[in-house]
Amino acid sequence: MIVEEMTVEESRALLARASSGRLGCSLDNQPYIVPICLAYERDHIYVFSTFGRKIEWMRLNSKVCIQTDEIITPSDWASVIADGQYQELSEPKFESDRAHARELLEKRSQWWLNALAERRQESHSDLSIEPLFFRIKVDSITGLRARTEKEGSGGG
Amino acid sequence: MIVEEMTVEESRALLARASSGRLGCSLDNQPYIVPICLAYERDHIYVFSTFGRKIEWMRLNSKVCIQTDEIITPSDWASVIADGQYQELSEPKFESDRAHARELLEKRSQWWLNALAERRQESHSDLSIEPLFFRIKVDSITGLRARTEKEGSGGG
Q1: What pLDDT shows up at residue B88?
Q2: Which residue of B has its CA nearest to A129?
């Protein structure tokens, strides 16, 4: 098995195919990870998620990362990480951006949105439910890929 | 769909079943996420992984988190997060702990270890390869679970 760095182009392509991943945020250098639905477009990753401490944390520290992967077998996988800045899509200022985020995410995550809709109807107790849309302004994207055979590697 | 907090016992049980997850670490409040193999036992999560900036970062900031989940459908899933402290299992001081970590992880992650072994034989270039074993001293474990029907919830 060979592990190689992916090019920025390859990493972007993987991120563009992804509809879910993990968001990492940090407060007082304590990291936190939460599963998310995502849609990548040009310089932004649009995120749909629910309640939780992540929003509170990202308001205090906007430095975040998003990780996603495609694992076919233990020796055939790729993992991409994007570093960036949290941008809240608050209304009314970001109304058009929120609508755009929703449109992008609906294409990829219809089942999550349906599930949330159900949950909003059914739930009267338990945790508070708020549909959260935000975006990450991407600063950098890197990726690693494993495969069993070298393909034209020039290493020595 | 209802989302509920899991009890510590339920969260521990999920973590004990898991053989893989994501590690989050942080430096200067920039978070970083990497996929890992893991084995949970009492107060520690033993981790097998490979090269990368995470080790460098965890040496500088030992506050980390580990996230793992069981996703059956979009409305039937559970996600657990453990916060804790990085502990390097350096030799010779931690030789017996390293051996214990390897034994635990071999049971769960034989294919990863095999893949690494292959990789060590085959690779002469590309990224440097070092089998890394470390553990996380767990401080807290929390979990969230979604399901479609309430089961004896007393909320109102």
Answers
A1: 87
A2: B3
**B66-80 pLDDT, tens per residue?**
999 998 876 788 999
Checking if the pLDDT of B119 tops 80, the result is no
- Residue identified by tokens 């909003």 is A120
Q: Does A111 touch chain B (CB under 8 A)?
A: yes
Residue contact A118–B75, C-beta within 8 A = yes
Query: Would you say residue A50 has pLDDT above 80?
Result: no
d(CA A53, CA B140): 15
CA distances (Å), B122 to each of A3, A76, B119, B125, in order?
Answer: 11, 15, 5, 9
B128 within 8 A of B50, measured Cβ to Cβ: no
Residue B30 Cα distances to A42, A66, A137, A141, B62, angstroms: 22, 11, 14, 14, 14
- Report how far apart the first and last C-alpha atoms of chain A are (Å, whole number): 16
Confidence band, pLDDT 50/70/90 cuts, at residue A126? very low
Count interface pairs A-B at CB distance under 8 A: 145
Q: What's the rounded Cα separation, in Å, for the pair B151 and B112? A: 38
Instruction: Choose among A3, A33, A112: nearest Cβ to B126.
Output: A3
Evaluate the CA torsion angle A111, A116, A120, A126 in order and state its sign: positive
